[in-house]
Amino acid sequence: MMIGSCASLQVGAVLAARLFPTAGAMGATLLRLALAAVVLLVITRPRLRGWSGVRWRGAVLFGFCLACMNGFFYAAIERVPLGVAVTVEFLGPLTMAALLSRRVGDLAWILLAAGGVAVLGWPGEGAGLDPVGIVFALVAGVFWALYVLTGAKAAAEPGQGGLAVAMGVAAVAVLPLGAHGAGQVVGEPRLVVVAVGAAVLASVVPYTLQVSALRRLSAPVFGVLLSLEPAVATLAGWLLLSQDVGPVAVAAIAVVVLASVGSTVFAAPRRVEPVADRYRPEA
Q1: Percent of the chain at pLDDT above 90?
Q2: How far apart are the C-alpha atoms of 254 and 167, rounded to whole Å?
Q3: What's the CA gap between 36 and 155, in Å, rounded?
Q4: Average pLDDT over residues 58-72
Q5: Is a pLDDT exceeding 50 seen at residue 250?
Q6: Per-residue pLDDT, 268
Q7: How confident is the model at residue 178 (pLDDT cuts 50, 70, 90)?
Q8: Which terminal residue of the chain has fewer beta carbons within 10 Å of its beta carbon, N or C?
């Protein structure tokens, strides 16, 4: 599920990038989230009347994190290569995993990952990187970490209704910033098809798989598989967007992946349990 999620998410991001010249980053984000929300709501048909206040708050928080994570990430890939953006963004969940472990030794993995990101700015390789794009990727990383936490709570509930509602909340949150850009796409049938493809591949498929995976995987395994995203993003950018990736950037991405693996594999031993089990009502 996680491998399929990584592949689908990055191919969907490549499709969404095709919308940037017309819709801009926020317009592309709105189209992706709104179309995905429609698809998920039609498929799941959640029975909202019986929802508790706690479940509604969880879905709203999850949706807000989805909106911010996607919005800042798309703003980042509008300015820097896809692989670089995902690598920098991954510092968010990596730091979260290390902090939650409460072990001094995990600081080494955070510093290793930070070093990998610093290499991206090395003269000659990273001189052309837009610093604003890097900042956007870092902010997206913060919300990626919060997405994991709020998503685990949503996964503790049965079905995919929580994800569908959260996707709708995310679309509403992005609406003020993305409405104008999204409106430019409506009159272009070719771009509408691209937008639908981005919504399915970058939202419906990966987030459904990730929420399902959170019900089955322990936190360390989830973190290790999530670390595949920078590598998959770099490969997708190279194959599908013809983005040139130099050896220094490849090495930096490899260092961040290594740090993520190290921070999870060498974490303190704990009872293995699916991440979502921690947030089930009976827990």
Answers
A1: 22
A2: 32
A3: 18
A4: 91
A5: yes
A6: 56
A7: very high
A8: C
User: Are 12 and 77 within 8 A, CB to CB?
Assistant: no
Q: What tens digit of pLDDT does each residue of 27-38 get?
A: 999 998 999 999
**pTM for this predicted structure:** 0.77
